[in-house]
# Entry
Amino acid sequence: MIVLEQLLNGVQFGITLFLMSAGLTLIFGIMGVINLAHGSLYMIGAYAAALVAAHIGSVGLALLGGIAAAAVSGIVIEFIVVRRLYERDHLDQVLATFALILIINQGASMLFGRQPLFVSMPAALSGSVTLLPGLAYPVYRLAVIVLGLSVAAGLFLLIHYTRVGMLVRAGATHRQMVRALGVNVGRLYTVVFGLGALLAGLAGVIAGPITAVQVGMGEQILILAFVVVVIGGLGSVRGAFFGALAAGLVDTMSRAFLQMLFRHLMGGSNADALASGMSSISIYLLMAFVLLVRPHGLLAGKT
# Structure
């Protein structure tokens, strides 16, 4: 049963990575912008939800507040900073969005301090549910999995079966043609950036009760999200989904079982040190293997 439990933990972690990486791959795949401040939007969503939950006590309002704060922040960032970077090279984009990280982190430190905020588990989602005899699993983590899968399905339908999705896909490969047809490409980019920010904020909201809400929390997961984007293929939301699940499972399973495996092969301290090191780099090893087999990622988007 412990294997099944860890598999579910891996899927839950992968869902969180997907919400982060889907926004990244949309912004980079459609707009060609490398947005290092994506992790800051994740942090904004987490802080906003924590503050709403602490002052109002409503889970629904905390969810709405978190994703709304991230989406609005994303739109403001796109309007003030990012739209001036569309025609610039990636180095300028990296420098500008890195500066945003520093500004937002410093602003959060001044407003909320350096001490982490701990978000209580929603009462309706606390406790465990028995999935199989001997396997009790936290309700909150199951809710995260269901929510993430629902968002993935909704995102797939939005991109492939709606007019907005058609324009988004067309804007990624035939930008001038879309503009010639009378579509306001600048407004379309704002919508895409806001959608990516909303997804990052949602990831921050659901991560709040599992991990502490604190300054800099976005940078920790941002690197993993970029790895997922590379594994899945640039510009591919489907690739981000499968890449995130693979990364989440590999990271969780290696942290759970590598130590046990190595202790059968060598001494205790050496096994612990090797297992700790291997589990820390397991996602990067997965990325290296995927790039070796499929240099453009699992499901690379059209370029």
